[in-house]
Each structure stands twice: as C-alpha cells, then as structure tokens.
Amino acid sequence: MAWYVDRVARVLVFAGGISAIVFIVGIFVFITKEGLDFVLGPLSLGEFFTSIAWRPTSNNPTYGALALIVGTASVTGFAMLLSVPLSLGAALFIAEFATGRTRETLKVLVEMLAAIPSVVWGFIGMSIMNPLIIRTFDVPVGLNVLNAGLILGLMAAPIMTTIAEDALKAVPDTYREAAEALGATRWEVIVKVVIPASRNGLLAAVLLGVGRGFGETMAVLMASGHAINLPTSPFDSVRALTATIAAELGDTVKGGAHWGSLFTLGILLFVVTFVINLTADIVVRGIRKK
Amino acid sequence: MFTATRLNRRSYRTESVAKAVFCLMTVVLVIPVLLIVGTLVVKGAPAISWEFLFTAPTDNMTAGGIFPALIGTVWLVVVALLASVPVGVAAAVYLSEYAPDNLLTRTINLAIINLAGVPSIVHALFGFGAFVLFFDMGPSILAASLTLAVMTLPVVIVATRESLQAVPQAFREACWNMGATRWQTIRKVVLPNSISGILTGVILEVSRTAGETAPIMFTGATAFVAFLPGGVLDQTMAMSYHLYYIATQATDVPEELTFGVALVLIAIVLAMNAVSIAFRVYLRGLKKW
Fold it and tell me: What is the reported pTM?
C-alpha cells in the first residue's frame, strides 16, 4: 500500500514539476494562436519595423511599431543608465563593506523597494514626479522619457542589486584572504579579485534588470505620456510596446486585425524577454562550470 | 618598519573614497522608498477613515470608499493561492527531492526563470486567450486569479525549494533507514521541517498578487460593480485596478481620495512583505540544525 501511494505521489509531484514548462509553452501557444491571423494576414514586416505610423483604428489602418520599439528602448535605456551603476555600487557596498545591522537593514529596504506595486509607481510618476519635472526643468509636460526612466530605474534596481550581491557572495572567501595576505587593501581585493571572479553573475544581473525594465507595463503606461513619438530628448513623451497593449486591448474587436496586432506585439515581447532570460542563464552557467 | 609608505596611504585613501561612494549609491537607492511611503502617508492619511474602508465609491468614483475593491482583492488573492500553492509546492518537491541533474530539470529551471521574467502584460494576453476565451470562463475572478497564479508560481516554487533544501540530508537518510518510502519521508519529515519556510514564500506571494494590475485588467477586474462578488464567475473591483482607474480614467477625483487608495494598497503590500521578512528572521533564530 505504502509503495502504491509512493508511486501515485511521484506521478503527481512530477506533474507539478513540469507545470512550469507547460505554462511557458502554453503562454507561447495561446498568444501565437490569437496573433497568427494577423501575422499571416495584414502584417507587413517592413512596415512593422520601419514605420512609426501606429494607426490600427483608422479607416486605412497601418501597423508601424517602430515608435513603440524606440519608446520602450529609450525608457529602458534611460533607466539602465541610472540603475546599473547604482545597483552594482549598492551590491558592492552591501556584500563587501556593510556589516551586521546596517547590512540587514539595507537588504530589507531594497526588498521593500522591490515590493512597491507597479501601479503605485505609475501613480507616483503622475502625481509627484510630473509636477516636479515641470517645475524643475520648465517644460510643458512632465510625463516623458525622464519620468518613466527614473521610475523604471528604481523598479529594476532591486532585482539587479539582489542578483549582483548573490554573485559577489558566491566568490569564495579564500580568494579574498589570499589577496589580503599579499597586502592588498579591501578596494584592491574588490577590483582585482572579486569583480573579475563574479563578472558573469554581474552581467546576468544587468541582463535580468534590462528584462524587467523592458517588460514593465503599468508604470510606463502612466508615466511616459503615452504619445507616439520618436524622442529626441529626455523631455519628449513616448509610448511603449507594453503600454500600447494595456491601453488598447479593451477597445478591440475579438479576432479583428487590431486585436491580432496587439497579440503580435505580445509575441515580440515574449520572444525578446525569453532571449534575455536564456542569455542570462547561459552566462550564469558559465561561472558554475569554472 | 610598520610606518605607512606613501603608496600605503594612497591605497587606503582610495579605499575610504570607494567605500563612501558605494555607501552613497546605496543610500540614493533606498531613499526613494522612504520618500514615497512618507508622501503617500502625508497626502493619503486624511482620506482614511472607517467609512472610507467600509463603503462603496459613490458619485462616479469621486466620493465614498473602497470596500468592494478591498473585498475583490481578497477574492483574487485567495483563489490565486488555492491554485498556485499546491502546484508550486509539488514542483518544488519534485525539483528538490526527485529531480536528477538532467536536461529536463535544466529545462524546468529555465521555464521557471522565464515565467518570472515574462512581462505582466503578456501574462494578461495569455490569461485572456486561454482562460477567458478558450476555457470559456469569461472575464471573472476565476480567470483573473488563474492568470495571477501562473504569474506568481515562480515565487512559491523558489521559496519552497529553498526551504526544502535547507532540511539536512541526514534527516531523510534516517527516515529511509527505518524503511519509509520516499513519499512517507517527504510527508512526515521533509515537509513538516520546512513548512514555515514555505509559509514565508506564500506570504510573499500574497504581497505580489495583491499589487498586480496588468494581468487582471482584461481577465476579471472591472471599474465599478455595485455589489460584492458572489462567486468565482463574477467580475470584481480590485485595489490595484481601482487605483489605475481613478488615477487615469475617472475625472474630477479629489487628489486626497487617490492618495488614500494608493496608501491602502501600499500598506497591504508592505505589511505582507514585512510579515514575511520578520517571519524569516524569526525562523533563522529558531533553526535547530
């Protein structure tokens, strides 16, 4: 009897184990299923990637996603300019310099930063940052690349800090001790030993941060101004891929071309984040082999 | 012999400068948390009252309270947990107790990372295509909660796997030596010894689920319903979507009201997170092995 139960449990647990694969495949299948008619029909790849005319509701609809792609890229890029140095610096401080209570407090605060929901970030962008940017820089609109980028930077920072800190912690203490025994200062140990040894982990941290920024929806929708535009300065409003889906899906006709075009944007988002995560995984595996 | 040379002094100076710079970077990163919470408290607190918490919105959302949204969020979180905790714990048990180091296991791990990394709006598209349309649930609490469950599954899996792996191998071996099967060992030894760690993960998942907006926008959340949900096939209001709605779609909403909603939402999320962190610290103190 016990062995029978054991057999059943093994099957059930295995089913749970492969559920993650089932769901990730399911996501791809279902968004492709809804987007397929559009991809095979009205979609013109040339227009999609080179035109900025996203006019799915006009009488003569055009589906140029370039402005959306550039919008996402500019906001994510701006966010990374801010958060990559800050996160890596914070990870170095928490892992290598801070001790005891300071360290625990900082880690909890970083975790709290990660916990703030994206809709609250978006609301902060609209209600606090927007007037602040208008006043500080004397510009007409405060919902722009700067606003969304700052918010996204803060949102992506905790994941980068946590993973980078893990990578730094994974460097064996014997490495540090060996360098210190040769007379190296803390700083020299970090620059010459710890960072080179954890290079791959730090790179993976940055990649996952990029993925996080790239896929963020609500905060970007609310703080970026949501205007189709090729930005020339941080004070221009833009529109992101994710935000476009969130803003338009509610108004579309099921099965129509507009509907399919939004699922096609979803396929694009899925593929790009998949590649980013896969790359990060391969990069991390690189360290383990060593 | 031990007086510092110029080179020594210079490298120590470099070190203190580096330490100060990194410290500053960390502070720049964590200060926004305090600023945001502070601002929300100052601007939102005047709106909070028993009446605000326990009545429905009135006058086109420009007055009244948030009761239906609060209850809706509770519904969404509870149904999502019912779906994701059993699956997540089973997945973690498989990965920690059964899985050999092979291609399948590596693929599962990659799938978990991807599930956590896929944009929330793509989860929303999936939920809409799969649950609302294909499985014909319509926009409902069930469809929204299942979407949330798929999205937050990695949180449960990762937390559970960690706490299972923290149970010493010797415990399992002792149990096997008594003639117990693998499953008996898991049920009587491994799970009881890691249940508190699993709970920590579940509380963290509650915090994540309560704050998500994009996945429920099209799958079950609605701007306004006059009555509380009666079952899982009803549509519902939710705190996160309510905040989005009154901040962007509704007109003439007094600022105080919006800040009040944001404050309640962030209070729920951060309180859950704090409980999870406190629980973890407490458990670390209890560890017997």
Answer: 0.91
